[in-house]
Amino acid sequence: MGILSWIVMGLIVGMLAKFIMPGKDPGGIIVTLLIGIAGSFVGGFIGSFLGFGPVTGFNVGSLLLAIGGAVLLLILYRILKK
């Protein structure tokens, strides 16, 4: 995936993660984008480690791995911000 694809997927994944875990979070669209992109990397790493495969593009498996990674990062972000 190219850099533009990572940004678009990160934005989508970040918004879905915030939809799954609503609440007051400092930061706006930039933090959402960064959590989504980082979540894609984390989800891909965890998926590869567990044998599910990496995040390879816009497909259901990759999207689920990326959302899982973004939700995990959002949980850690909220814990660290307290």
From TrEMBL:
Keywords: Cell membrane, Membrane, Transmembrane, Transmembrane helix. The chain crosses the membrane at residues 6-21, 28-52, 58-80. This is Predicted transglycosylase associated protein YeaQ. It is a multi-pass membrane protein. The keyword Transmembrane helix applies. It holds the Pfam family Transgly_assoc. The keyword Cell membrane applies. Belongs to the UPF0410 family. It is found in: Cell membrane. PANTHER family: UPF0410 PROTEIN YMGE (PTHR33884:SF3). GO terms for cellular component: plasma membrane.
